[in-house]
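Q: Structure tokens for this one, please.
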Amino acid sequence: MKIGMRTPSLKKSLRARTTGAAKRAVKRALIPGYGKKGMGLLRDPERAVKNKIYRKTTFSLWDLFK
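A: Here is the predicted structure, written as tokens:
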């Protein structure tokens, strides 16, 4: 498991801010429970636990400027 700073990716950062927003809005309107807190744990528990640990043990470049 990685500990420390996440490798910054301008391409992924830009994509997450633009293309995904419209898709998420549509899914949120059509699929009940989409985007709600705790749904990841119900859908894929192993992945959710790994992601939770990863987010707690790493930090972003932008976190340094907060």
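A few notes: The chain has three helices and two strands. The two ends are 25 Å apart (CA to CA).
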